[in-house]
Structures are given as C-alpha cells and as structure tokens.
C-alpha cells in the first residue's frame, strides 16, 4: 500500500487485500513477489483502486446516468450519480474535480472511476480536516461523527444505524450494551472510509430492517406471488441480482411491509428517484424508494414535534450515549393530538384510546420525546398494521371498512354472496361479462381461482376480498402499461412529467374525495388509478389562461374527447399529458404565453427560497 501511495495511488488496505485474492487465487494474505506486485499494481491502476465488486457496481451507475448514450458523463450527470449512491454532493467540488480528471466534454468510464476514487478520498480527508480544525486532533472520535456528517451535508442518521456501521469496522461491539460503547476511541483513514461506505449502503436502516426489505422485494419479484402474495408463505431465500419488480408489485411490497401508501403515491416515489415512466425496478432502486419513504416519515415527525435542528440533535445524541446526558434539551411533549395528526398524515388510522395510551408511554419515559423515539413507535405500529394487511389481501383499514359495507349490502340475508347477489357483484367487477364471452370466461376463471372449487356458486368475505384484489390488479396493470407506453411516446422531459403528476394528483384526489361520499359501487373507494373529469381539467386550465369563451370551450372539449380512449368523461394521467401536448401545439387560448409567465414566476420564487436557505445554512455552519 505504501509503494502504491508513492505512485500517487491511495487504495484502501482491504481493497488491496481483495485484489490480492483475485490475482493470486489465495485466501490468506502473504508477502508478494515482484511479479505479483507488478500485476496487482496494473490491476489497481486500471480500476482506480477498486475491487471487482465495486468496479461492477460503479459501471452500472455510470451506465445508468449515460442517458444520451454518448459514452461520457457531464458534471450534472455525475452529480446525479453521486446522489444516487448516497453521497452528500458539493457542487463546486464536482465541477473542479471533473475538470481535473476528465475533459470539458465529460468523463468517460475510466475517468469516472478515477473521479469516484478521488471524491471518496477527499470526503474522508475533509472529515479528518474538519475534526482537526475543531478538536485539534487528527484522529476522528466516534462522538464527533454525527457533527461532522451534518457539516458535510449528510442528513440526520438514526443512532442505531451509526452504531451498526461503527460495529462493521470493529469500532464498537453491539453485544456490550445499549448505546455506543467504544472499543477503539478513534477512526483511522481506512476505518472512516469503510464507515462511510457502510453508512451509504445502509440507506438509513438497521440490518434487521434491511433484511425485511430484501425479503419483501424477493417475494414480489417472483411470479409465484404476483397474484396471491398476501396469503402464501414465501420459503425462498435465494437472491437474484437481476430480479425486478413492476410498479404494481412495488405497491404490493410496500403494503406487505405495512406502509399505508396508495398506488398514485408509489408512482410519485418512482418519479422522486429519477425513474419517471419506468415499468420496473431492481433491488437497489427498491431500496432507494424505501429510503425516500423513511426520510418522509422523519420529516413528518420533525414537523409534528416542531423541533429546531439543535434540539433534535442534542436529544438524539444523548439518547444514543454519544453526548453527555446533562446536555439533553427537552422537546415539546408528544401528545395524543400531535400523534393523531402524524399518523393521519402518513395514512394510518388509530383509535383515540390507543393514541392516549401512546402519549402516556412517552410521558412515563418508555420512549424519548424526540424524532427517534417517535420513529420507534411508528415502526412498532407499522408492524401491527402489516399483520392486518397481510390477512386481508393488502387492503388498508379504511378500504377494508368500505368493502365490508359493500359485501354486507350484497350478501343479505345469507351472509355470503350467492345467486343474484353474486351475479350483481360480478357485473360490477367485470362490467363486460353480460355481453362479452371472453369477459364472462375471465370472470368465471377468477371466481374459480379464489374459491378453489368448480361450482363457483358462493363467496365468503375473504374470497370476496381476494376477488376484488385480483380485479383491481388486472385493471391497474393494464393502465400502468398504457402509461409506460405513453410516456415513452410523449415529448415531455422527466422533470415536466413529475410536476404535471403532482398537479394532476392533487386535483384528482380532491375531486375523488367529494365523489366518494355518493359512490355506491364496490370499487368506488379503492380504485387505484386516479382520473380527472373534463370539468376539473377546464377549471385547472382556467387558472392558467383565465375564463374561457364558448368557442374555446368547444375546442377544449374536442381535444379531451380525442384523448379519452374509453369516452368515460374523465382522463387518466397519461391522457391528461396528451391533452396538454395537444393544447400546447395549438396554443389553445394563448396557453403557451401564460404558462411561460407562470414558469418565470415560479423560477424567481425558487431562486429566492434557495438563496434564503443557503444563507441560513451558512449562518448555522458559522455558529457550529
């Protein structure tokens, strides 16, 4: 390692050991001959010091962000690649380092590897330098890590995650006691390097949580569980690096884990990790979605507690044992009212008596009244919800209540669906069954699947739930495929699709909440794909262009009818995008000019907000 260092290469010792095993085929590390050193030197230089495993992973990252296929990454694409890997991104350093390593036109694959090596090394060196400037010591102590991470721009990390990442580099022993008990008081360069690698790989989850997430992904990545994954046990433990799950299966996996999300929210999460219009995702992408959900929960908890960053930091460090207990600052009490707002915001329903009981547990000191204490309670509640959801084919409590009412109305007085009641349910779930032979056959086969009998003459409530789930999935899968094909065809960039989706979903959900009060159909309260009526589309556009005349209204109706393939009087999201494209092409009611004004106003507001946040962050760092 020292010899390589003299040649300007700074590989981590463990990486050199892995490369040694690759070159020699031997497990035990020993002294090298000159020829072996030369061979290892060539490998290290060609790979910029990375092992085979890291090399393959970084090549995938490089390919992921070479979106235009020109075999180079621009500085913007490099930034996205860093974000994807979990780095805190320093924009100025990215620009400077990209110019140093590559060319003005961008980085080729080997230059990207060199860039990544230098960026990682620089990050560790910055941690050491920051620590030296504040403590006077070059060696980084464990208790300094949270402060240093915040200074570099990393988000708050749960104390138990810090604990596990430190244990993986033999800094602490998890078996000693609760909290962080140091076996070695400081990090070496290699130790700090691996700590940061482990931290990024954790996605903010402890190992037990990551195991649950991986198992859920593998469960829904197999065809065996694509339709009835909520009732069968998955005994498979084999890991498939090439495994993929569809967006619909991602939705099922999240429900299986206890997250109370809707399918439209899953689509927004996909947009949030840069996978606009993607039909499927791999395990790493799945973990990115989960990390996004995790961050959203923490942000909601912080908002609920109305804590300043300083209060949250001191409390979390004190509860983790990495700051003196007398430094703890008492946050506002965790009340039943606050918990109710939080749980509702995250999609969970909880009786008032349970909320009062939880607030008492906080008051009595069973949980710390900080972000991590509330996160622990939320995790416990999610596990309870998970058990209920798995028994009921992925339906949330509110959905289950609506389906129970629909079933009871249809099943009177027998308590099961049979005869005319069963026929009525089939007509609602399979609208074309009366006239179309293929749809009638599909209905018969689906009922046979849920009853596991040839007669198909009677359904109990659990069989009814299974039938509804299969019908919903069939419709959702077809619509998601239509959206995927439409987004590939339409000329919108990813950021435009994301913004349009946010607007569309906001209006569509408001409209649905009003309509659901009068809805009596089985699928009325659980349909997963939002729609927007023509009236709502016109009202939305009027907010941009102003009131419309009768003539312009007729032109709008013609466009909406042209893109509404089912002539249902409402638009799915991709149909809405097609309508927007047509309106822009025709410059309907001067929509392009008005939209440009709104974009400029929005840009000015974002610039002002960014400047304010930048100054506030600079002031905070100066205080630190």
TrEMBL record:
Domain EF-hand: 53-88
Keywords of this entry: Calcium
GO MF term set: calcium ion binding
This protein's name: EF-hand domain-containing protein
UniProt source species: Effrenium voratum
